[in-house]
């Protein structure tokens, strides 16, 4: 399982010119599930994400978590995180989980995050999405399990 985590001042995702998810201060998370990924990995990553101390404290140090600042999450599924570009110029996605399993893990992951973060928004699994964000920092972190 892979997460690309971006600290944002705001972010939104649109499908067919309609906003389906929108947040203010918090994390935009690109979520990818791979072959053999489990709910235990999702548990670990949800806990890690919600306790990741990358928000500024009163001394301007990255010392606060999304829970501490009462931030928001926008989680967008992205199977392309499992692109294999070793051969040729066209990526292979054979390492990505099947859509059914990936969607189940995506929903499970978001529900785990909701135990720590009040506002968890999402994109639409499998849809063509347009994601907009205002990266804060910029701070971008990759988490894997």
List keywords for this structure.
145 residues, D-tyrosyl-trna(Tyr) Deacylase, Chain: A, two-stranded antiparallel ribbon, 8 strands, 39% strand
Topology:
Layout lengths: L1 E14 L2 E6 L2 E7 L6 H13 L3 E2 L5 E3 L7 E6 L21 H15 L6 E3 L7 E15 L1
Parallel strand pairs: 3-6, 6-7
Antiparallel strand pairs: 1-2, 1-3, 1-8, 4-5
Helix pairs in contact: 1-2
Give structural notes:
The chain has 145 residues and is an alpha/beta fold. It has one domain (2-144): 3-Layer(bba) Sandwich (D-tyrosyl-trna(Tyr) Deacylase, Chain: A). It is 19% helix and 39% strand. The protein has helices at 39-51, 99-113; strands spanning 2-15, 18-23, 26-32, 55-56, 62-64, 72-77, 120-122, 130-144. The strands form 2 sheets. Strands 1, 2, 3, 6, 7 and 8 form a 6-stranded mixed sheet that branches. It has a two-stranded antiparallel sheet with strand order 4-5. The radius of gyration is 15 Å and the shape is globular. The termini are close together.
Principal-axes shape call: globular
Q: Main sheet?
A: 6 strands, mixed
Number of distinct beta strands: 8
CATH-defined superfamily: D-tyrosyl-tRNA(Tyr) deacylase
The third-level CATH topology is D-tyrosyl-trna(Tyr) Deacylase, Chain: A
Helix share, percent = 10-25%
């Amino acid at each position: 399982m892979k997460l690309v985590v971006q600290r944002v001042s705001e972010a939104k995702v649109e499908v067919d010119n309609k906003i389906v998810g929108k947040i203010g201060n918090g994390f935009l998370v690109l979520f990818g599930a791979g072959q053999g990924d489990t709910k235990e990995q999702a548990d670990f990553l949800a806990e890690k994400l919600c306790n990741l101390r990358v928000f500024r404290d009163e001394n301007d140090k990255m010392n606060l978590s999304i829970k501490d600042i009462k931030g928001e999450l926008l989680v967008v599924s992205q199977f392309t995180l499992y692109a294999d570009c070793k051969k040729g110029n066209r990526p292979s996605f054979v390492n990505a989980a099947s859509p059914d399993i990936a969607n189940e893990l995506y929903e499970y992951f978001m529900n785990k995050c909701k135990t720590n973060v009040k506002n968890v928004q999402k994109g639409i699994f499998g849809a063509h999405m347009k994601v907009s964000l205002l990266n804060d920092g910029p701070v971008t972190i990759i988490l894997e399990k």
